[in-house]
Amino acid sequence: MDATNQNTAPAPARPQLQRAACIGGGVIGGGWVARFLLAGIDVAVFDPHPEAERIVGEVLANARAAYGRLTDAPLPDEGRLSFHETLEAAVAEADWIQESVPERIELKRKVLAQIDAAARPDALIGSSTSGLLPSDLQEGLRHPGRFFVAHPYNPVYLLPLVEIVGGIGTAPETVEDAVRLLEPTGMKGVPIAREIDAFVGDRLLEALWREALWLIKDGICDVETLDDVIRYSFGMRWAQMGLFQTYRIAGGEAGMRHFLGQFGPALKWPWTKLTDVVDLDDQLVDRIAAQSDAQNEGLSIRRLEQIRDDNLVGILQALKSGDGGKGWGAGRLLAEFEAGLRRRAAEADEKVDGDQNEGLKPLAVRVSPAWIDYNGHMTEHRYLQVLGDATDHVLQAIGADLAYVKAGASYYTVESHLRHLGEAKLGDTLTVTSRIVSFDDKRLHLFHRLTRAQDGAEVATGEHMLLHVDRASGKASPAPAAILSRVAALASGDAPDGEDDGIGRAIRPAAGPDRMALAQGPGATPSTRR
Amino acid sequence: MDATNQNTAPAPARPQLQRAACIGGGVIGGGWVARFLLAGIDVAVFDPHPEAERIVGEVLANARAAYGRLTDAPLPDEGRLSFHETLEAAVAEADWIQESVPERIELKRKVLAQIDAAARPDALIGSSTSGLLPSDLQEGLRHPGRFFVAHPYNPVYLLPLVEIVGGIGTAPETVEDAVRLLEPTGMKGVPIAREIDAFVGDRLLEALWREALWLIKDGICDVETLDDVIRYSFGMRWAQMGLFQTYRIAGGEAGMRHFLGQFGPALKWPWTKLTDVVDLDDQLVDRIAAQSDAQNEGLSIRRLEQIRDDNLVGILQALKSGDGGKGWGAGRLLAEFEAGLRRRAAEADEKVDGDQNEGLKPLAVRVSPAWIDYNGHMTEHRYLQVLGDATDHVLQAIGADLAYVKAGASYYTVESHLRHLGEAKLGDTLTVTSRIVSFDDKRLHLFHRLTRAQDGAEVATGEHMLLHVDRASGKASPAPAAILSRVAALASGDAPDGEDDGIGRAIRPAAGPDRMALAQGPGATPSTRR
Predict the structure, then answer these.
(1) Where is this protein localized, as stated in its record (chains A, B) (predicted)?
(2) CB under 8 Å to B377, separation ≥6 — which residues?
(3) What is the pLDDT of residue B516?
(4) B contacts of A412 (beta carbons < 8 Å)
């Protein structure tokens, strides 16, 4: 995949991101903390707010839950989280310091000057401001060249966008470094060519927000109607293609120029002139607050957050299958993030294992909301998905990985036997242990056992026969000696007690004291087919 | 589910939608044609454009492909599509006439007067206008009460929103009827309380578009950056929650009022004053066209449409799992649409079958892009998904349907045996035939065979043992006589030739002339475990 190319090792002299500091730990600051920690980066926090630890903890809990559903890729061990008494202590060791204090320029300038004085001179300093100019913020810093705006969107742990905006004093390589350092966190640093109040995203949001306030104030619609208009139509277009690419399609084969020709005159129509700033007086605030209460009756903010995060996870996963499986937009970014996680996990495994063989390691898999049926149980075919992941895990361990498949051969599953022994529910973690039961030069016979991590209860077993196939001819072919020797090494060891119950079994037809036979035709005498 | 309540039978006197007429068959008109046809509604088209049939045909092909991936629910037989030489012939029989001619008020008025004169007096007349006022359009009609704006969004066959806007002369029940009649097409009619130029959606779009043009003109960013800013951030928020619900979450426990208090002052900041209308001169058109070409290098409009439709299908499916499986936003609408399809198919089945039993009918399933792995083949667990759907189909046929499950009992799969005999690829249609192999009062033993529809090649088989379970106790329990008699009736008939190959089989361990035994430990002598 091209994806992996974007994560090649940087030149050694450029900054690395192993330790971050977050100054300010509200919803945005806490979101940064979660992004960094879940990417394996240590985070030092400074926030004088008495409840800072609780708030950060809540955002982090949401983020952990979302990541558990977002990806099956091997997340690194979480970075170390520490809270500090002083700003100076928090920033002292950091490679990247992210400022997320309230949006008041005097406060931000004061905090940034403190950071600048206490940080290593080569550390990067980003500000989460959603509207203040970087040139105004960097005035008076001793090292302004390493300062920039890094403006994220809520929820920071799921939405990838970070607008990267440099000021007059920002060194060009700072912007490049910021984009590069964010990559392993799954974020997308988007450099903005010129600084402007509110940058690009909030300018667009503000324009639409202003128009929305007029529509509510003038009684054209209520907030629920307005939200429905967005989410049943262009909201879904914008989740994947944005504005200009969507309009390119609308222009059709005639092209963008033709489309603009059509659209242009509309900009002069009377309805484009409603551009005054709406007066957000008490009456309008009351109306919006009341309509918002009605729209969200029975839905707490906590529940809305869960629903939003589930939806975002689902949209990200859907976009990961986009463009014929290559991934599209934020889904492509997720695929690249996962490729990076897998590559780093494989490298770490190699370092730890050396030439030693430690046998097949168990897989841990979390039951995702998308896997649940109307009974609240894990849907049947998701068991085979987990078993398939376990089979892939064994194939990687014997060297039949993606690179091997690309080189022209692969193991294909030809037969599977599943037994359902218990129920998996939302949020359960399943442990999958795997064993090579038998093999020859073409065949590989696997057995997987799924147990619930919290109580060890057996949930399902899978027995699978795989065939080694030459992909060009499509026929079975002997596996090479390198693979077979790893198979032989891993196939050692006795089966655990009771495991033979699940192996080599056929489905037995219905029979017993309460047997009713197969009818040979309507009204036929009970008899037996098998 | 609440979903089905929304489709209860209307009072008999209200209009029905069985025959539609589409006047104008471009991208929007063709999208309406596709929505109606795929919902089983006959459509008569009038469009004097010489290529109208080709253009409608292309939109329809896209829509059919998208629906094939969107849902496994039983789509009704497509409505009958006819093209007519005169407007009068097209509208004569129609229950709903949708006008989608170019956006020029004189032209629309002339066409609407013609429609009004030729249509049945009780037929509804909707206009696809994206900005003209319904009061202006209905002036001079003989029956203005049945006229309204029904403004859809491209692609009309996937995006559910229709803004329903009445004018001064529109009867209130017309708006209600329009919303109700659109329901079985999967669309969401959203009534707008007061008419206003450009209604709600295009007013919001226009505000953002105007701001976007300034950002490009002033060189703040290029079109790709602007699209990235949207799709990596608030685009994904808006696909599911819109504007106000998103901000409600941003306000946190402090609520909407608190949020507005914070946001309000920003409306007076300098950056909100950039509200002039941009001059879309040649230079700006050239810049946007060139940047758009660069953004979409190598992607034809046709390819972009496919990518967009795949993404929208994926987003809709993701949202269908939202809110703990109840469905959220456009995904909830999709769940309701599917529930309606299933209910109507079941009703139609009952009508056709009467008391006769025609045996188990084969299922037809289309391989979706989301089911394809990096080899271009259908992913392993998707076979079990198709087999699970086939099992559900059998359970419905024996009366163990969703209502039965709700009443307290269900069949659970306890064991499955899959054989992979061929490969399924993107776009293949699979035919699944099912057979009851054996049963007793608690057990149900099924065999499914998957063949490729185009050449009859066998792709996979599934053998499954199900147990009848009392849901309260979680224990096996005898099925009631009503179910067992249907099982007995459907279990009649001999197995087709060769089928026994796939039944009652166990996975055989690797063995043969080229056998390599299981190693008992590293370097152990070859020997045999089983």
Answers:
(1) Cytoplasm
(2) B423, B424, B425
(3) 36
(4) 420
Nearest CB among B193, B271, B413 relative to A219 is that of B193
Q: Which residues contact B293 (CB under 8 A, 6 or more apart)?
A: A256
State whether residue A461 sits within 8 Å of chain B by CB. Answer: no
Nearest-CA distance A80 → chain B (Å): 27
Helix (H) or strand (E) holding A467: strand A458-470
- Token code pair at residue B201: 């959606």
Q: How far, in Å, CA of A434 to CA of B259, rounded?
A: 52
Q: Does A477 touch chain B (CB under 8 A)?
A: no
The answer to whether the beta carbons of residues B415 and A418 sit under 8 Å apart is yes
Of B176, B199, B222, the domain-final residue: B199
- Consecutive 10-residue averages of pLDDT for chain B (530 residues): 42 79 94 96 96 93 85 84 97 97 94 98 96 95 97 95 97 96 94 93 90 88 94 94 87 74 61 57 82 83 84 88 84 87 77 58 77 73 91 91 86 93 84 92 94 92 94 90 92 65 79 36 26
What is the C-alpha to C-alpha distance for residues A412 and B420, in angstroms, rounded to an integer?
Answer: 9
DSSP strands (E only) in A31-160:
42-46, 81-83, 96-99, 124-127, 147-152
Please identify among residues 331-350 of chain B the ones whose CB lies closer than 8 Å to any CB of chain A. 333
Determine the structural domain holding residue A432 and report its residue range. 357-502
Say yes or no: A261 contacts chain B, CB-CB below 8 A.
yes
Interface of A with B in 94-133 (CB under 8 A): 131
Place of tokens 């024996």: B398
> Beta strands of B90-197 (E only): which ranges?
96-99, 124-127, 147-152, 161-165, 188-191
Cβ contact B223:A193 at 8 Å: no
Distance CA B401, CA B482 (A): 13
Among A234, A506, A512, beta carbon nearest to B505: A506
Pairing between β-strand A124-127 and β-strand A147-152 as defined by DSSP bridges? parallel
In a domain, A276, yes or no: yes
Rounded CA-CA distance A94/A65 in Å is 27
CATH code: domain of residue A284: 1.10.1040.10
Structure tokens at A64: 């952990």
Q: Does B359 touch chain A (CB under 8 A)?
A: no
Tell me which residues of chain A, numbers 277 to 316, contact chain B at a CB-CB cutoff of 8 Å: 277-278, 280, 285, 288-289, 291-293, 295-296, 301, 304-305, 307-308, 310-312, 314-316
Q: Do B417 and A416 touch (CB under 8 A)?
A: yes
Q: Mutual orientation of helices B282-295 and A255-263 as an angle, nearest 10°?
A: 140
What one-character-per-residue DSSP string does B41-81 give?
-EEEEE---TTHHHHHHHHHHHHHHHHHHH--S-PPPPPPE
Is residue A422 one of the residues assigned to a domain?
A: yes
Q: Are residues B105 and B235 in the same domain?
A: no
What is the complex's ipTM, to 2 decimals?
Answer: 0.74
Interchain pair A509, B405: CB under 8 A: no
Q: Is the pTM of this model over 0.90?
A: no
Single-letter residue type at A475: K
| Tokens read off for B93 | 């029989």
Which tokens hold the place of A518? 């197969």
CB spacing of B417 vs A507 below 8 angstroms: yes
Same domain, A263 and A387: no
Q: How many domains are there within chain A?
A: 3
CATH number of the domain where residue B493 is located: 3.10.129.10
- Please give, rounded to a whole number of angstroms, the shortest distance from the CA of A82 to a CA of chain B: 25
